[in-house]
Amino acid sequence: MKITPTKPFILRCFLISLFLSLPFLFLHLFSPQPPNHTITTTTTKDLTTSSKTTSKDLTIRPGYSSYETYIQRQLNKTLNPKLRKIWTTRDWNRKIPIFAKFFSELKDKNLLTKTSKALCIGARVGQEVEALRRNGVVDSIGMDLVPYPPLVVKGDFHNQPFDNDTFDFEFSNVFDHALYPQKFVAEIERTLKPNGVCVLHVALSRRADKYSANDLYSVQPLVELFKNSVLLHVRGVDGFGLDTEVAFRKKPPRRF
Ligand SMILES: *[C@@H]1O[C@H](CO)[C@@H](O)[C@H](O)[C@H]1NC(C)=O
Ligand SMILES: *[C@@H]1O[C@H](CO)[C@@H](O)[C@H](O)[C@H]1NC(C)=O
Predict the structure, then answer these.
(1) Mutate to test the pocket of ligand 1, among 61, 71, 76, 82 (most ligand atoms within 8 A of CB)
(2) Ligand 2: residues whose CB is within 6 Å?
């Protein structure tokens, strides 16, 4: 008889505690959650916080658990035998004249001369290099994860294998492949000579390919990333799925 009241008592305690915990449950459910971050976004999160330049107009694609996975994926495309075959045969004849025309236009604007020391970043099999050489720019070389001698040497655009102040001209149409856009640009500014010119072909407002690591929606993030350069021009181009040409000139060293 004495024990009977305890059962409802315990039940009441339980119900009361459940009731009291409800606000916390709701708070948890409806409070702003961080986006579904798994380990895959650690690197991009580090990047966006460290660079301070990535904005809504430049986003890093999630899905790379490590730098090694990213490099592996890029290598997968670069080493694909079918693609390499196409790049050196059908594309070789189709694309080189178009690249040559772009470079000839840059020569007309005096952004490139026959005596320029030129680098093509992410040049695969070196179509751009061949196009530069056909424009008389003999001192030109390409760089990619996989070398293709004699036109392309091995190198990672996040960590170029060149000394500071090496090139007069750098060209790239693989900005979208950069997992660390800030590093990509910093390396260009490091290896360009003062007053050297960098020309990028990029795709705005549209997803490039499945090997892209970032998406760019305006020129503004580039202007912010090229912090030691001045913007020379932005113009529309028809460059193999890339629609915009952006040119920068590295500033001369500051005098004190
Ligand atoms: C690279 O390609 C191979 C086959 O083509 C595939 O099995 C592998 O998962 C790919 N690796 C990456 C990192 O994409
Ligand atoms: C090369 O340039 C980088 C970045 O501007 C600078 O931090 C570094 O000290 C330079 N290295 C040399 C050897 O001048």
Answers:
(1) 76
(2) 164, 190
Q: In this structure, is residue 45 part of a structural domain?
A: no
Radius of gyration of the chain, Cα coordinates, nearest whole angstrom: 26
CA–centroid distance, 190 to ligand 2, in Å, is 7
Q: Provide the whole-model pTM.
A: 0.79
Q: pLDDT of 15-34, one tens digit each?
A: 555 455 544 444 444 443 33
Tell me the pLDDT tens digit for each residue of 174-208. 999 999 999 999 999 999 999 999 999 999 966 65
Give the whole-angstrom CA distance, residue 29 versus residue 255: 57
Q: What is the mean pLDDT of the chain?
A: 84
Write b or e for each residue in 29-50: b if 16 or more Cβ atoms lie within 10 A of its Cβ, otherwise e.
eeeeeeeeeeebbebbeebbee
Atom of ligand 2 nearest to the CA of 164: 1
Q: How far apart are CA 253 and CA 240, in angstroms?
A: 35
**Which of the residues in the chain have pLDDT under 50?**
1-5, 10, 13-14, 18, 22-53
Q: Which domain holds residue 192?
A: 67-250
User: Is residue 133 within 8 Å of residue 140, measured between CB atoms?
Assistant: yes
CB 228 within 8 A of CB 165: no
Number of domains observed in the structure of the chain = 1
CATH number of the domain at 76, please: 3.40.50.150
Count CA within 13 A, CB hemisphere, residue 98. 12
